[in-house]
Sequence to fold (325 residues):
Amino acid sequence: METKARSQLIMNYSHKTYALTDCLRKFPREMWDFKPDDAHWCIREILWHILDIEMHAYLRFRTGVADPGKAVSAPEQESWARQLEYTRQDIDDAIEGFVWVIKANGKFLKTRPAEDFTRTVIHPEFGSLSLDQLLERHNRHIQHHMDQMAKRFNEWKGLKN
Amino acid sequence: MKVEERKLKIEEFGGFALALPQALKEFPRSMWHYKPDPDYWCIQEVIFHLLDTELNFYIRYRACLAEPGKQVMPFDQDAWAMKLRYKDRDVDQALAGLAWAIQANHDLLASLEEEEFSKTITHPERGILTLERVLEYSIDHIPHHIGQMRKRFNEWKALQNNRF
Fold:
């Protein structure tokens, strides 16, 4: 990846803290537990999922730099949501946590030299991933779930109307 | 471990979210980079080590509960300290994250039922560990490193006293 494109990507990733909190302001808290059926996640569950994935990102980025070529873990997301009872967890704790971890990851990546971004980790599902690829994936992941939250809000609004 | 003993230990652990910044007040920031020898960690490196370990525990506790038996990934603490340049990073951001992680781990552990402490993870070097064993290790970890930071401070202070 070109240095300029990478810097832009790191900036986009770091700005996800603002994008997420701005996006949440559009959805009234009264609907954060709404889900159209049990097979779908509500906003509260999505927020805890984002937090737990970004905590994994924290360890993945650092493993890539300090211990390249090593295996990293990936959570079984449905099991984490169910067994850790995301529906009962405090939303403000999740928000505080992901704001911190995304900022910490963004700041960490910003200080790394270009050669670090070609270092790899072994993901149990996707195989060898460079730091550049991890950064792209985590960026897309957050965006995907922001879209999912907007969808949940529209479903709730549709029901109200 | 008896239920009451475990409860006390979990509360003691949660108390580190406040006890750690309190302990750090004893050590002037001007010496947080001091180390008697390159082989030793300075206080700032110890703080980052505590943060990274606590975030590893964050994943391990939750993996144990959600995916019992799962293999977790150890990390090479000396390689992390050196290659991630603990000495050059933002220590205030680390302290904020550490307080958050201790609280989050405490809240999770305090909410668990008795039988959940016998769930296990597999550590590649230490074998099968129950959640209770992971908890015991994590509870001892922070006071051990507070002791290490105090030692570093005393070494620095002794040097100051020997200067004319």
Observations:
- The interface with chain A takes residues 52, 55-56, 58-59, 62-63, 65-67, 70-73, 75-76, 79-80, 82-85, 88-90, 93, 96-97, 100, 103-104, 107-108 of chain B (CB under 8 Å).
- The mean pLDDT of chain B is 94.
